[in-house]
User: Fold this.
Amino acid sequence: MSDPALRLAGLERRYGAHLAVAGIDLEVAQGEFVTLLGPSGCGKTTTLNMIAGFVLPTAGSILLGGQHVENLPPFKRNLGVVFQDYALFPHMTVAENVAFGLTTRGIGKAETATRVKDALDLVQLSALGGRRPQQLSGGQRQRVAIARALVIRPKMLLLDEPLSNLDLKLREEMRNEISVLQRRLGIATVFVTHDQGEALAMSDRIAVMRAGRIEQCGTPSDIYLRPATHFVAQFIGSATLLQGTVRGPEGATGLVAVETPAGMIFGSADRHPAPGSAATLVVRPERLRLSTTAPLPEAGVATLAGTVESAIYVGARTQLLVRLAAGEAIGAEIMDPPGTGLARPGIPLFVSLPGHECRLLPALP
Amino acid sequence: MTVIEKGALSGGSRTWLLVGLPTLFLLLFFVAPTLYLFSASVMISDGMPLDRPTPENYQILLGRSFYQWVILRSFGVGIGVGLAVVLLSYPVAYFLVRTTSRWKGLLIAVTLSPLLASVIVRTYGWYVILNQEGALNGLLVWARLVEQPLRLLPSTAAIIVGLSHALLPYGVLSIMSSLNGMNPALERAAMSLGATRTGTFLRVTLPLTLPGIMGGFILAFSLAISAYATPAILGGPATETMATSIRNFMVAILDWGLGSAMGVILLASSLLLLLLGSVLGGRKRTAA
Assistant:
């Protein structure tokens, strides 16, 4: 088997007493798209800068295709980097920008011209080669930056929040474009973002970072459906967290019964926690069922009574806040527009929580 | 309706007052003397007023080799100081812009400190260092690098050294401002594309900070070419510049015609360079 495109082992960056990156282990396979996702200050950009060679690690190693590179300067690493503000050279035309990485490699005029043309074709900007970066729109600049990074045929592509300066519509377009391009070229990519939507839509795997560490690394559905920590559960998507005490396995359902102030609720876990221990249930708003009449009892489904407290319209759905009889609030999402069906503040209803949709986490320490 | 008109009127007269006073000041104390300088340069010959303009003063200054040397020496001083200021201040400016030291503010203040000292004090400082019994000669003799103290004063080189020191802050400020306006990610981008540190500097940083370099050079050049005190102290009769010769014409020889003509030549040289610089700088800007 060939080496992974990238392997980080115990990677650390210390600034004085502050650990910006506190020991990261990560592998990116050939052709894989891995996202570093986290709030600002979590160390994701520092990690990317260490891979690119702009920041030197204080400990740990970086292997590109099996080769140690932590002591190589950035210009010897052969990586394509796309920056948040694109960093196009303002004193050069689009074509000169794209050609920059080829001239530094001493590639001849004829080959440079063909490769620049191919790269601009790839991002559909062949007509704009003579323009200056300042004459382009945000999306076009983004494409030039990608062409410039890809034209050198890098070992990997590093993307540092490349979409954050674009407006919503364009962001979604570029998101798809980058994904399609990356899959077509089969180039290993590390993508840094704080936007969970981008991460879920684009990645093969997501590494959720917090305070310099990776909290969880897995496929988008893994991360969303089976969060490993409270932080991941709350950072990705919205979720209601219900605290309780583990009572034990629930019959033959494979679920765990948890007693919460709102009542007995069932949850699923890979490893069942000991009875009597504290636990948290993660409830996704789109996964629970609402009804005005009490549903028939069903094994592994908890039913709680409550009242609609507020209904917020977000277009495709309406976000409800349901106040349970025991006093806790739980978020739900339904299709009814506000003022119709269940989306009317004040109406009483029943909330059903299927146990296999509720993820069980150990309680906060 | 009337209220609005009245408001507009008083607003208009306020504007006139604001623009008018400085304009009047400039007319009285800049435009009028400059015009007088022009007329004196062609209307006075051999110290005597004429009734018809003559190019005689210019013929003397541009035709005789002694005065040609004065003009050339002044240009040499200007270009030498401009180059020295730009070359010395670039690394300083680069360091000051990029450093994350908490002493950054203090370091900038220290760099600008030559501006705080009086020109006379600063220049006599150099005199103390450079004269025959001075600190530099003492050191050279003590280290046995020379047998006899060197004659470093008066000399054109000493004038360039003294003026470069005085004008360094202008270069640093000008280059700092253009470095500050440059996105630091551009250097990272260049390096990620395979450019070495030198290549990055030559192909990205230098071209993008060229306006700052030009600005620093033009400032240093035009201040150096018209400086009087430093050439007067560190130079001598053999190293006259346009500025010191103007003083000689006006005060010692009392030939206002020649003095005025030299003044016009000095003014024209500075303007020429300024024009050249703004043409070059302007082309750069529209290109960028």
Notes: Chain A has two domains: 6-234, 238-362.
